[in-house]
Amino acid sequence: MSKPRDMWEFRKIGEPLQIVKRAASSQEDVTDGVVEDKPPPISSPAPRERLPGVGIAGLRERQDQTKILHGHERPVVYITWNREGELLFTCSKDKMVCVWSFPDGELLGSYKGHMGAVWACSVTADSRWLVTCGADRLVIVWEARTSRELARVELPGVVRCVEWAGAGPGAPASPASERFVTCHNRFGAHPPAVTVWRFDGLAVESLLSITTLPSAANQVRWGRGDYFVTSAHDNGEPLSDVLLYVVATLIIS
């Protein structure tokens, strides 16, 4: 499980991110979400000079200026940004989520608690909470800046996608941002479902579960104003289904 550790200062929506800088220690390792053998700043090498190897938690800059982030041991399957575009979150089959600062590419920390591949993640508009989901059927809510686990819920099947309300590109800040939506696969007698949840800072509560699906959903997204949820389905046909659900009347009071 991740070791709680401040990676940036708490801020309100719209305020600039203040990264917590720490001197590297020989006792620190990547299991605590800390960069091991921290590389020099990208601007330090001479032109066209490659940075030296720095292990799995470092950053290299190729001659074509493409920045390569090294922090995972298995394939990366999902990436997402925070609202301001200054934090990049990466999910991997190595059971871990990493968070990077942009544009310098520093590995700020990691979130460890899943027991299988992490398929998706989403961060609230104020970068306060991160929610992750994975092949272990778990949905975990974290305090984003410390990687401290706040709550978890186990679903009947593999959880393929998760998204906070108000977390999408261009979405307005909203007090309803503690809601999130998930989709999970069929498992045994349990049908696939799209579920809307509420997180109050302590516990996760199910608000709505939609089980009348043509097949398991591959992705779920909030629509305009967070009044709608859309889900994408692969039915084994050339054309897949996109379903639209009105959820506002059941959730917003």
TrEMBL record:
GO terms for cellular component: eukaryotic translation initiation factor 3 complex, eIF3m. It comes from the Eukaryota. One of its GO terms (molecular function) is RNA binding. Residues 24-50 are annotated as: Disordered. PROSITE patterns: WD_REPEATS_1, WD_REPEATS_2, WD_REPEATS_REGION. Gene3D superfamilies: YVTN repeat-like/Quinoprotein amine dehydrogenase. GO terms for biological process: cytoplasmic translational initiation. InterPro entries: WD40/YVTN_repeat-like_dom_sf (IPR015943), WD40_repeat_CS (IPR019775), WD40_repeat_dom_sf (IPR036322), WD40_rpt (IPR001680). Keywords: Repeat, WD repeat. This is Serine-threonine kinase receptor-associated protein. It comes from Polarella glacialis.
